[in-house]
């Protein structure tokens, strides 16, 4: 994470919607601009990692490890240590600490993206979202604690995390593009199949959340589930959407290897799209293998935790593959 960010339009040739006075304003953060891509990459990684720490809270039944919010205990920000202490407060506090780290990264994203007057207003506005998303997640987490792990809010908590991973991947990709209108790098069939693949990720992730909420790792030791759903039926539905996702990805790979670059597409765009699709296939197969192994071995906590992080990785890999199918001049 030491390479400088890719070159973007110089301040003397502002893109569409750029401020007319951009040339007249000194860039006080100019020396930090080369680190923008690194910060955006850290944001993607952090958004995936917090899914893992949130999963640890759920898998260790630590959702109420801190009895209140935003404090951990009444009048105390950190867990109280005593001889009868369990791991639950520390697991929950660790997840909250990760939220703080993401908040710091969100501030850095805001400063580096929002103030970059070489870029269009549409791009700069994207820099607000990571920090807003972290703040929203903190509020949702507080509601989860105050409502004693209400299953609807717990599911929403993960759903927002998945959305933030996708958006963070989009922002990272968008940083390396120009500010012109998006154009396909291949045929319309390639673009349509990619869009369908992105849409299929929604039921894949949603049904995965329902599988966890209806099973033994729903986050509450007092009941075997938080959602009153048949675990077997939900698992089969989840598996069906995954297989449909794999078939669509297979079709995309065939189309990409038969495709010719569209007129005006930059050199190397099509090979990069093919590599991104193959990477997505590898992540999907690994995630599917973990899913089947955990199902047939009684859902061991470690594998379930890896599967949760894999869901975040799958979301990133899907966004990366879909976004590679277009380019901005």
Report the sheet with the most strands, covering strand number, pairing sense and barrel closure: 2 strands, antiparallel
Mean pLDDT: 84
Low-confidence stretches: 1-13
- By DSSP (H or I, 4+ residues per run), the number of helices equals 9
Strand order of the largest sheet: 1-2
Oligomer: single chain
Total strands: the figure is 2
Class computed from helices, strands and strand pairing: mainly alpha
What percent strand? under 5%
Domain module tally? 2
In helices, the fraction of residues equals 55-70%
Order of helices and strands: HHHHHEHHHHE
- Overall radius of gyration: 22 Å
| Span of the ends, CA to CA | 26 Å
Outline, from the CA principal axes? flat
């Amino acid at each position: 994470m030491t390479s400088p960010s890719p070159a973007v339009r110089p301040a003397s040739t502002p893109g569409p919607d750029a401020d007319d006075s951009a040339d007249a304003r000194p860039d006080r953060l100019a020396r930090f601009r080369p680190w923008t891509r690194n910060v955006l990459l850290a944001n993607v990684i952090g958004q995936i990692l917090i899914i893992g720490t949130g999963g640890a809270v759920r898998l260790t039944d630590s959702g109420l490890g801190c009895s209140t919010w935003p404090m951990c205990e009444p009048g105390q920000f950190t867990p109280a240590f005593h001889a009868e202490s369990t791991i639950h407060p520390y697991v929950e506090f660790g997840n909250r600490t990760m939220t703080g780290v993401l908040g710091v990264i969100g501030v850095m994203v805001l400063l580096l993206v929002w103030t970059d007057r070489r870029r269009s207003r549409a791009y700069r506005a994207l820099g607000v979202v990571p920090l807003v998303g972290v703040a929203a997640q903190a509020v949702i987490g507080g509601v989860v604690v105050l409502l004693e792990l209400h299953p609807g809010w717990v599911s929403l908590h993960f759903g927002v995390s998945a959305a933030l991973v996708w958006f963070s991947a989009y922002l990272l990709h968008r940083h390396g593009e120009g500010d012109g209108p998006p154009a396909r790098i291949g045929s319309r069939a390639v673009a349509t199949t990619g869009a369908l693949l992105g849409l299929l990720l929604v039921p894949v992730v949603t049904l995965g959340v329902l599988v966890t909420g209806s099973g033994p790792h729903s986050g509450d030791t007092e009941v075997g589930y938080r959602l009153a759903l048949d675990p077997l039926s939900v698992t089969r539905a989840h598996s069906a959407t995954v297989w449909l996702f794999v078939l669509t990805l297979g079709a995309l790979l065939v189309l990409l290897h038969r495709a010719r670059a569209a007129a005006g597409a930059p050199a190397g765009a099509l090979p990069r799209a093919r590599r991104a699709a193959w990477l997505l296939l590898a992540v999907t197969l690994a995630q599917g293998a973990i899913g089947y192994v955990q199902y047939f071995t009684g859902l061991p906590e470690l594998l379930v935790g890896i599967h949760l992080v894999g869901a975040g990785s799958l979301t990133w890999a899907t966004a990366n593959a879909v976004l590679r199918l277009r380019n901005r001049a």
